[in-house]
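Hi C.,

You asked whether I'd gotten around to modeling the 459-residue construct. I have! Everything is below, sequence then structure, no commentary in between.
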Amino acid sequence: MNYHLNRTVCRLACALLVLFAASPARPASPPTDTARQGLPTLAPLVNEVTPAVVNISVITRSPVEDNPLFRDPYFRRFFNLPDRPQRREQASGSGVIVDAARGYVLTNHHVIKDAEQAIVTLKDRRQLQAKLVGADPGTDIAVLKIEPQNLTALRLGDSDAMQVGDYVIAVGNPFGIGQTVTSGIVSALGRSGLSVEGYEDFIQTDASINPGNSGGALVNLRGELIGINSAIIGPAGGSVGIGFAVPSNMARAVMNQIVRYGEVRRGRLGIEMADLTPELAKKLGISLLDGAVVAAVQPDSPALKAGLRERDVVVALNSRPIRNAAELRARLGLTAIGEQVELRVNRGGETRTLRVQIAAPQEHTPGQGQAIPQLAGLQVVEIERGSPLYQRVQGLVVSAVERNSRAWQSGLRPGDIIYAINNRRVRTLAEFQAALRGAERGYALSLLRGDFSVTIVIR
């Protein structure tokens, strides 16, 4: 009897093995709700997060392409034409409500740049006038404020906890067609080099991000905001599965400073840095693969006082590993003035820990500035003998920026040192104005701000 029972059990086990082997393999699915007739679905998650994602419609003014005759001042005066004819344009993007009690909305700086008016449309079709609290071109983050009535906010998650392969969804308003949800995974972390602003630490995802998604939400499967969708790479601006989002931890740090000060006040460490390459590591006699090499230490700087030296390799900031100079630059750029940071450095193969207090940027006291008609609200001065910058840097110092002017909204701030326009070096007011006159379609201003080089594009 036992013999026949054992044979029956063996045959059943073999049959089950054959059945499973013949079944087609199914791709792994994200954790989902299975209450709806046993079918996997992201619908409960989508229903939870989409009320916090909004459409942002902005009205801007841009120069009109005109006849060359219109550039003649005598011709304009004779026909009573405005100096810079402009036309009103409308554009749209996305945003995320992150504070329902105070009505704060996170979006991209490039969504609201040069906006005269911004209207936020909620999922329930309510339209609310938005006020710009502040923006930071370096990280492409802006904060708007709307009337805090019956709003739904997204929880800010910890973007540092994300790993490559984690499931995410992207929510926004692509091409202005209405709120859209796409899904994918985290494709890479710590992406940089997409622009020259210097504060990049993007999350890369294959969740479809298209024009109009900018400022929208990248959400994990816990319903937490872990990124603000910001950029795409693709032919003709279309999605090909490579999208980028500003990490939520970076967006949170920027928002906190904007809400407090109206802008991001970046401090000064006082170093120049470079990526650690295999060739450089060999030259330094170390076996490290990641880190940021200290190329120079500025005199009378916090870095010098803390004991940093040239050829030191910064491998961690506040116990978080540093992969390259761009990552160190981005994280230092979000450190508040007066805050103490812990740097772990490798010096000649030995690891040591240094504590540095971030200082306020060096104050320059330029004289009365020269107003620049092409950039309303901007005043600059030449670096003259007697200035602490004389013979140390070449360029023009921004002596004043009128708040909420075109120059202010573009991101220029007092103390910036403009050294090039469209890659054309400028050292004097005459060179600066000549470069502006020769750049009719827009300006790429290269400038020094504290420890960092920044490029601001003005169209």
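If it helps when you're writing up: The CA atoms of residues 157 and 224 lie 5 Å apart.

Thanks,
B.
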